[in-house]
Amino acid sequence: MTRTTDTEKSSVRTGGASRRLRWLLVPSLALNLLVVGAVVGHAVFDEPDRKVPRVDRIGGPLTFALSHDDRKEIGKALRQQYRQGRPTRAQIQEEYQQAITALRADPYDRAGLEAVFAAQLAGATERVAIGQRLLLERIAQMSSDERRAFADRLEEGLEHPERFGRPEKRP
């Protein structure tokens, strides 16, 4: 019969905690992307019948107009820069603990929950700003011919959205 030491028990608990944290992080990131997509979509396409874009289409026409290599290069740089400034797991867990505390408070702590949401939105906004900066830097590096080709693909995407995997507008 083997005995479990305190160190082994501690490592088992830590592994479970990091798995739970991952399960919390994924929905949080998805929610952030949805919020940013809704804001950007509303700002760009201010039409009363416009629906919120799907998460996989948040990049919009500018992203779709990039060449495959440009998208790949910008995506790699975006991931690298995001890793440098992202919060630690402990900070993310603390943020969710603040949300849980605000939800359980009696009376309900709306200001506390709003503060958590504001922090999440600020993080998402920062990631969008990084993406825009990287896109601007890449466009600045393009030759005149590359920029014209990019503009042509952008125009084509706006005139024929179904060619970029988006359905045409309904009448």
Uncertain segments: 52-57
The percent range for strand residues is under 5%
Radius of gyration, rounded?
21 Å
Mean pLDDT: 75
Tell me the span between the first and last alpha carbons. Answer: 73 Å
| Annotation field: number of helices | 6
Count of distinct structural domains: 1
Classify the secondary structure makeup into a structural class.
mainly alpha
Keywords: Membrane, Transmembrane, Transmembrane helix
InterPro entries: Metal_resist
Give the tags.
mainly alpha; 6 helices; 74% helix; 0% strand; elongated; Metal_resist; membrane; transmembrane; transmembrane helix
Structure, described:
Residues 151-171 are annotated as: Disordered. The chain crosses the membrane at residues 21-45. Pfam families: Metal_resist (PF13801). Keywords: Membrane, Transmembrane, Transmembrane helix. The protein is mainly alpha-helical. The protein has one domain (21-46, 54-163). Helix content is 74%, strand content 0%. It has helices spanning 6-44, 60-65, 68-85, 89-104, 110-141, 144-159. Helix 1 (6-44) crosses helix 5 (110-141). The longest helix has 39 residues, at 6-44. It is elongated.
